[in-house]
Each structure stands twice: as C-alpha cells, then as structure tokens.
Amino acid sequence: xxxxxxxxxxxAPAEKVSSYISDFRNxxxxxxxxxxxxxxxxxxxxxxxxxxIGKIRPEVRIIEQGPESISWVxxxxxxxxxxxxxxxxxxxxxxxxxxGEFHLKRKLLDRAARLVGAEKFARTNGERSLSRLKxxxxxxxx
Length: 142
Prior knowledge:
Elements: E1 2-10, H1 14-22, H2 27-30, E2 34-39, E3 44-51, E4 54-56, E5 59-65, E6 69-74, E7 78-88, E8 94-104, H3 107-115, H4 118-139
Antiparallel strand pairs: 1-8, 2-3, 3-4, 3-5, 5-6, 6-7, 7-8
C-alpha cells in the first residue's frame, strides 16, 4: 500500500470545481483508472478501478462532503480512503489538493501490488487525474 499527496492550481472558480468533484458520479470523467462508478446508496458507490494487478471493485462511502472538500473511505477490497480539498486563490482560481492512503485488504494482493509499484502507479494516476480535472474545469465556460 502507500499514500499519495498531490496539488494542482486551476484557473477556474473554486466553487465550480468543488461542486463538480463533490458529485462522485463525475469521477469516471476525470479520475484516471476509474472505469465505472455505480451509485449504491445516498453516500455509497462501487468503483471499477484499473490497477497494476488487474481490475478491482472497491466500495466507497463518502464520510464528509462540504463546500470545499470531500472525503471517502473504502469499505471493501481496499483499506484506506481519500480526501480532496479546494481552496480559492487570490486571482479567482483555486488550488486542488488530493491525499489518499490505500492498502489492498488481502495481504498477498497487497504484497503483489507493492512488487509491481502500486504507489508509483497511484501517484502517476493521481497526477494525471488532477491534470485532466484542470483541463476539464478550465475548458468550461461558467
């Protein structure tokens, strides 16, 4: 397992970015490696994720959702969770921060994931995801 912490500045209003990422159903559009998002309940989802050891299907529960942040925990397949914070900057844009921690629940799979570089994979996907989010948010005219 591992942890990832990434930041990206965007030339888009903080409230628009925050509103977009707080709807977890949008994850497939901007999160690299997310193949599908299925809403299971008011604050629970099942994701299909591409990983270095194949597809995994963790369930996610939103534990905090506010005007400037969203955080979640994995309830199956993966231990850990993630958090995104959106902070306005002085020029009408924002800074988006992502922090995530993860370990596959089955020790053998976690060991295999470490061997094939799951943390590097997660960091690369996280950086690419924030770049994609930046592109999507800056391309939209509000």
